């Protein structure tokens, strides 16, 4: 039989340190676990795959109806009318964004700043609004200004 490379040490007993405690199997295995060679790669792939929407351009009739509703709400802001406002929320990381809907009562309409403030302190830019819905606009009680 041919002499093998490690024949001289193969049958030696396992070394046990007198100074340090033996490491648990779990901790020892963790040392050899695979590591993420490309840190942040998965997050980058997920971000790239995330979809955004493009802003919808309003037709002139839609824009006029939205202006009439906004004018009505400005005049009747003290009546605590419950509304549902759908607006475009710009994405901070990518081009585009998404449409979100805020429901509640309007506390202020600032025509100079172009912002509608809800009672929950949410500020909605008027230029981003797609639609305003409320029971008041569906009833016959809504009169255009």
Protein described:
- The structure is a single chain.
- The chain has 145 residues and is of the alpha+beta class.
- It has a domain at 60-138: SH3 type barrels (Roll).
- The protein contains four helices and five strands, in the order αααβββββα.
- Strands 4-3-2-1-5 form a five-stranded antiparallel beta sheet.
- It is rod-shaped and about 100 Å long.
- It starts with 24 loop residues before the first helix and ends in a 7-residue tail after the last helix.
Could you provide a short overview of the structure?
This protein is α+β, with helices and mostly antiparallel strands and 145 residues long. It has helices at residues 25-31, 41-49, 60-75, 135-138, and strands spanning 82-90, 97-110, 115-118, 123-125, 129-133. It has a domain at 60-138: SH3 type barrels (Roll).
């Amino acid at each position: 039989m041919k002499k093998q490379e490690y024949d001289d040490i193969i049958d030696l007993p396992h070394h046990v340190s007198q100074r340090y405690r033996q490491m648990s199997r779990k901790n020892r295995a963790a040392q050899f676990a695979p590591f993420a060679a490309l840190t942040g790669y998965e997050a980058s792939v997920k971000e790239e795959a995330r979809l955004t929407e493009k802003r919808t351009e309003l037709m002139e009739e839609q824009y006029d109806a939205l202006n009439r509703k906004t004018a009505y709400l400005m005049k009747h802001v003290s009546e605590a009318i419950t509304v549902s406002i759908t607006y475009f929320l710009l994405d901070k990381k990518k081009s585009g964004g998404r449409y979100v809907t805020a429901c509640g009562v309007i506390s202020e309409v600032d025509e100079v700043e172009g912002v509608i403030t809800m009672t929950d302190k949410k500020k909605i830019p008027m230029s981003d609004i797609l639609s305003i819905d409320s029971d008041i606009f569906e009833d016959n009680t809504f009169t255009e200004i």
